[in-house]
Write a structure and sequence with these properties.
Layout lengths: L3 E3 L5 E3 L1 H34 L2 H13 L2 H8 L14 H8 L2 H18 L9 H24 L2 H28 L6 H30 L8 H26 L10 H4 L5 H21 L4 H35 L4 H17 L1 H10 L2 H25 L4 H31 L4 H30 L5 H17 L9 H11 L1
Antiparallel strand pairs: 1-2
Helix pairs in contact: 1-4, 1-6, 1-7, 1-8, 1-9, 3-17, 5-7, 5-17, 6-7, 6-9, 7-17, 8-9, 8-14, 8-16, 12-13, 12-16, 12-17, 12-18, 13-16, 14-15, 14-16, 15-16, 15-18, 16-17
Length: 499
C-alpha cells in the first residue's frame, strides 16, 4: 500500500503528505461554500428587495397569514408590520439558501452510489471531482454577474445549477480518503482532511480582504458590489487549483477490470471489453446482494438518527448565536462573530487529537466523549448562569471553547464509523447516507428552533434546545454496536498474505 507507512512495532501509520493532497478536494468545496453562504445572501437581498413582484406578494401574504410575522421575527428578522412595508424577502432568501441542503439530501446518495460502480483508469471518485469541480467553478463566477444584469430568473438558474453540480461530486470527494486509507486510520485521515478543509474556509473569510488589497478598493459596504464578483473569481481559481492538485498528485487505483487478457498487447480488444462488461455486471449484482445484518442495520439507523439530532443542535448554534448574543448578552453582531471564532479555533485545535483518540479508545467512545462535553458545557451555563448573572458571559465563552473541541471529537469520527458499517465496497453509498442525515438536520433545525423561539419568546431557549438535541443524539449513539475499525494487526496480516 502506497498510502500508509509501517511502524517499527508492526502497526500502520498514516501518510500525512498523501492525505493532505487528498484533502485538496475538500478544500475546493470548503472555499466555495465559505464564499457562497454570506455573499449569495447579500446578492439575493439586494435583487429581491428591488423586485415589485416580491413586494406585492409580501403585502398580500402578510394580510392573509399574520403568523408569518411572528415566525420571522423569531428568526431575528426586522419584519415590521403588514401596514409598514412587511417584506417576504428574508423568507425567500431562507428558502433559496436551503437549496444546497435539499439537493444534498436528494442527489448525494445517488451520486455516491454511482461512484461505487464507476470504472475508469482514473479510479472511482476522481472522475466526479475532475468533471464537477471545474463546472461548478464556472457557474460560481456567473452568480454575481447576474446582479449586474438585474435578472432574478438568470440568477436562480445559476444558483440551482451550481448547487446541483456541487452535489454531484461532494459524496465522491469525501469517499476518496476512506477508499485510500485502511479502516483503522480513517479517523486520523478524516482529522487531516478537516484541517485542510478548514484552511479553505479561512481563505474564504479573507477573500474580500485579499481582493480589495489587490484592486485597491476599500473593503466596506459601499464598495461591496464592486469587489464581490472578484471574490467569487478568487474562490473559483482556488477550486481549479485544488482540482489540478487532486488530478495530478492523488493516485487512485485503476478501477477497471485487470485481467491477463488486458495486460496482453495482442489480446482481442472486443473480448477484453466483453470480459470487462461481464465483470461489471457481476460486481453490480454482487453489490446489490450485499445486505447488512439486522444488527448492522440497527446500528446504521441509530447512527444516522444520532447524526440528525447532533446537527440539529450544532447548526442551531451557528445559525442563531449572533441573535442570542445580541438579546441575552448585549453584544453587537461583530462581537458575536468574534466570539464564534473561539468556537472555530477550538474546533481546529481538536482535529488531530480527535483522530488520535478515535484510533486509541475507539470511535464510539470518542463521539460519546464529545457529546458529553457539549452537554456538560450547556448544563454549567443553565445551572450557574441562572443564579449568578455575572458569570453568564464567562460561561458562554467556556461553552464555545469546550463546544468547539467537542465538535471535532464528534465530526472526525462519525463519518468513518458510518463507512465501516457499510464496508469498503459501499463507501460512496454510505457517504451519501451520512450527508442525507446531516443535510436533513440543517433543513429542519432553523424551522424547528424558529418555532421554539416563537413560543418561548427568548433566545435563551437556544441553551435549552441544544442540550436536548445533544442528549437525544447521545442516546441514539449509545445503541450503536458496529463501526469500529479493524485492528492494525489483522490488516497487517492480510497485507502480508497478499504479498
Amino acid at each position: 500500500m502506497g498510502k500508509t507507512k509501517t511502524s517499527g512495532e508492526g502497526g500502520l501509520k498514516l501518510n500525512y503528505g498523501k492525505t493532505i493532497l487528498m484533502g485538496f478536494a475538500f478544500m475546493a468545496s470548503s472555499v466555495a461554500w465559505g464564499v457562497y453562504d454570506p455573499y449569495v445572501t447579500k446578492i439575493l437581498n439586494r435583487m429581491l428587495s428591488a423586485s415589485p413582484m416580491i413586494t406585492h406578494w409580501s403585502a398580500a401574504l402578510a394580510q392573509r397569514f399574520p403568523i408569518l410575522l411572528k415566525f420571522m421575527a423569531a428568526q431575528g428578522e426586522n419584519v415590521g408590520s403588514a401596514a409598514a412595508g412587511f417584506t417576504l424577502v428574508p423568507l425567500f432568501i431562507g428558502i433559496i439558501m436551503t437549496f444546497d441542503n435539499v439537493f444534498g439530501v436528494i442527489f448525494q446518495p445517488t451520486f455516491g452510489k454511482l461512484s461505487d460502480r464507476t470504472h475508469t483508469r482514473f479510479g472511482k471518485r476522481k472522475p466526479f471531482i475532475m468533471f464537477g469541480a471545474p463546472i461548478a467553478a464556472v457557474l460560481f463566477i456567473l452568480i454575481p454577474r447576474m446582479e449586474k444584469y438585474g435578472s432574478v430568473p438568470a440568477l436562480m438558474v445559476c444558483i440551482i445549477l451550481f448547487v446541483f453540480v456541487m452535489s454531484l461530486w461532494r459524496a465522491p470527494c469525501v469517499a476518496l480518503m476512506p477508499d485510500l486509507t485502511p479502516p483503522s486510520l480513517r479517523s486520523e485521515g478524516n482529522a487531516v482532511i478537516n484541517l485542510v478543509g478548514g484552511f479553505g474556509s479561512m481563505l474564504a473569510l479573507v477573500a474580500a480582504t485579499i481582493v480589495c488589497l489587490v484592486l485597491g478598493i476599500k473593503n466596506d459596504q459601499a464598495h461591496e458590489t464592486q469587489y464581490t464578483p472578484y471574490v467569487f473569481l478568487f474562490a473559483a481559481v482556488i477550486m481549479i487549483i485544488c482540482t489540478l492538485v487532486v488530478t495530478f498528485f492523488v493516485k487512485e487505483p485503476d478501477s477497471r477490470l485487470h485481467t491477463a487478457a488486458e495486460r496482453n498487447k495482442d489480446a482481442d480488444a472486443a473480448a477484453v471489453r466483453a470480459a470487462a462488461k461481464q465483470a461489471r455486471k457481476e460486481e453490480k449484482a454482487a453489490l446489490k446482494a450485499m445486505k447488512l445484518t439486522k444488527g448492522e442495520r440497527t446500528s446504521l439507523i441509530l447512527m444516522l438518527a444520532g447524526l440528525f439530532f447532533l446537527f440539529c443542535g450544532s447548526n442551531s448554534i451557528q445559525t442563531f448565536f449572533a441573535l442570542f448574543a445580541e438579546e441575552i448578552l448585549g453584544k453587537s453582531s461583530g462581537e458575536a462573530t468574534r466570539m464564534m471564532t473561539l468556537f472555530a479555533v477550538s474546533t481546529a485545535i481538536g482535529a488531530l487529537p480527535a483522530g488520535f483518540l478515535g484510533k486509541k479508545i475507539g470511535r464510539k467512545k470518542t463521539i460519546l466523549l464529545g457529546l458529553g462535553l457539549f452537554i456538560a458545557a450547556f448544563a454549567a451555563y443553565l445551572t450557574v448562569g441562572r443564579f449568578a448573572s455575572q458569570a453568564m458571559l464567562p460561561l458562554v465563552y467556556a461553552a464555545l471553547v469546550l463546544g468547539g473541541f467537542a465538535n471535532m471529537l464528534i465530526t472526525v469520527n462519525t463519518l468513518p464509523l458510518v463507512l465501516e458499517i457499510g464496508g469498503i465496497e459501499k463507501v460512496g453509498t454510505f457517504t451519501g447516507y451520512y450527508y442525507t442525515a446531516t443535510f436533513s438536520a440543517q433543513i429542519a433545525t432553523p424551522i424547528v428552533y424558529g418555532i421554539v423561539r416563537m413560543l418561548s419568546g427568548t433566545y435563551a431557549s437556544l441553551f435549552v434546545y441544544c442540550p436536548i438535541c445533544f442528549t437525544l443524539s447521545l442516546l441514539c449513539i449509545l445503541g450503536v454496536r458496529h463501526g469500529e475499525a479493524i485492528p492494525d494487526e489483522i490488516i497487517k496480516e492480510a497485507e502480508m498474505a497478499d504479498d
